């Protein structure tokens, strides 16, 4: 339960310090620490196979943080890109129900990296995402055949969504070539 409270206590100030850093004192390092310590805690708990009693609280907090960051992206997004941000919010809510808190936390890192334009945060988020998805897959109590079927179904679903988005999604305006 303590890890859930840790996420709930550190995530809001971390995102606030990184998105809106104070003018007088640079507290972005504190924001980074508040953001990364709970994820490192989850990784350590999974590494040592310790059972976490956090329940759904960390997942709910990370999902709320992800939706909040997507809301910030929504404000700056072009109208043609806003449906993609909505899809991201819906995916965040579904992932909060289905996966572990670490997967959502790593997605939050990646989304925050996109918002801030931070390559280092993107690299950390990518490594964390690979770790937490690998651990989630490893911890599934399914046979290899069932896991491969699940991965195949997920791949086919993503291909279908990509095709549908390209066919029915918003179209980018064509850019005219000029002489000059």
Overview of this protein structure:
It is a single chain. The chain has 180 residues and is mainly α. The protein has helices spanning 2-19, 28-47, 57-76, 82-98, 101-116, 119-139, 144-168. The termini are far apart. The model has no long low-confidence stretch (mean pLDDT 80).
Question: What are its keywords?
Answer:
about 180 residues, mainly alpha
Topology:
Elements: H1 2-19, H2 28-47, H3 57-76, H4 82-98, H5 101-116, H6 119-139, H7 144-168
Helix pairs in contact: 1-2, 1-3, 2-5, 3-4, 3-5, 5-6
Number of helices: 7
Task: Compute the average pLDDT.
Answer: 80
What share of the residues lie within helices? over 70%
Q: What spatial form do the alpha-carbon principal axes imply?
A: flat
Beta-strand residue fraction? under 5%
Q: Which ranges are low-confidence, i.e. pLDDT below 50, for 5 or more consecutive residues?
A: none
- Structural class determined from secondary elements: mainly alpha
- What is Rg? 18 Å
One letter per element, helices H and strands E, the order comes to: HHHHHHH
Number of strands: 0
Span of the ends, CA to CA: 64 Å
Specify the biggest β-sheet: none
């Amino acid at each position: 339960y303590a890890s859930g409270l840790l996420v709930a206590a550190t995530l809001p100030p971390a995102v606030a310090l990184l998105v809106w850093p104070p003018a007088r004192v640079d507290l972005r390092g504190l924001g980074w620490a508040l953001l990364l310590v709970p994820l490192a805690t989850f990784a350590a708990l999974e590494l040592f196979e310790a059972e976490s009693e956090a329940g759904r609280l960390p997942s709910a907090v990370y999902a709320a943080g992800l939706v909040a960051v997507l809301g910030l992206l929504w404000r700056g997004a072009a109208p043609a890109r806003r449906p993609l941000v909505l899809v991201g919010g819906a995916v965040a809510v579904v992932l909060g129900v289905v996966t572990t808190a670490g997967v959502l936390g790593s997605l939050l890192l990646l989304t925050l990296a996109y918002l801030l334009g931070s390559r280092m945060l993107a690299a950390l988020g990518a490594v964390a995402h690979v770790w937490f998805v690998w651990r989630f897959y490893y911890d599934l109590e399914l046979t290899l055949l069932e896991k491969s079927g699940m991965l195949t179904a997920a791949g086919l679903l993503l291909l279908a969504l990509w095709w549908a988005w390209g066919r029915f999604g918003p179209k980018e305006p064509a850019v005219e070539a000029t002489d000059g």
